[in-house]
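User: quick one, fold this
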Amino acid sequence: MKTDKGRARSLEELGPLMARIFTPPEDPALKPPRPQSGDVMISPYGKSGTTMMQQMFHQLRTGGDMDFDDISRVVPWIETAPVLGLDINADQRAKPRGFKSHLHYGAAPSGMRYVIPLRAAGPVFLSAFHFFEGWFLEPGSVSLEEFYGFWSRLRGPVDADYWDHLLSWWDRRDEPDTLLLSYDHVVAEKRLVIRKFSSFCGISCDDALLDLVEERTSRSWMLAHKDRFDDAMMRKVSEERGGLPPGSDSAKIRSSDAPRRSLPPEIASRLDAEWRKRITPVTGHADFAALEADLVRSLTRET
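Assistant:
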């Protein structure tokens, strides 16, 4: 069985591969985040618009800087900083400082401002499958049904799944330090969200900057510059530590006509059941669409 070179061909191989890549070295010089006044943490669940929001934030605070090789170099990812040997507390290119994360609220560094796009579980699951298959899994080796078993048990670095993450941030929706968004609403009403985001971060945004940020967070623009949004630093680590082949498809931006799987009805039913079991009793919403509509109404009233 191949266990130390190349992409995983089964979920049994995936676990050890991910451990080799993502286990950080023991380096006492690498400290946890020390928040400063005004710091912003973008922390959706994985595959919920993180890269777009990193780009939106960086373009707003710099007025259009694109002199970087990896968006996570200028808006660093808290959880992978130790793996990459990055000083998460270093000065950044502009103020306010910004960070990427996928942490739930209970594990987030305190004293920051938090920006959290939420997304329905079905698209999140499918996006995660496409992402893993293009990078860590040999294409065609693991079915959607098999991957669902992996994804549904995925607890992240701090023991939280999709449902835990959503509830932790939903509970913060009325707090002044938290901006809760809907991923689909960000895409559909980009200009409104940019203004809301800039105000939340304390960044002045005139019409010229609004136009620039809207353009540079579009799918077409980010796809044309996808080498900045393909996890270049982590891809290098995955090749060096995990033995993955060079040139894996780690791009976060996919063209609108890229091949996509459909959500199998059996998995959709399981996600619906999990929502009714874990989310409805807490939020009162029958499904994600109802929660999203409530969230968008609140955001629109405040704008």
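User: anything notable?
Assistant: The chain has a mean pLDDT of 92.
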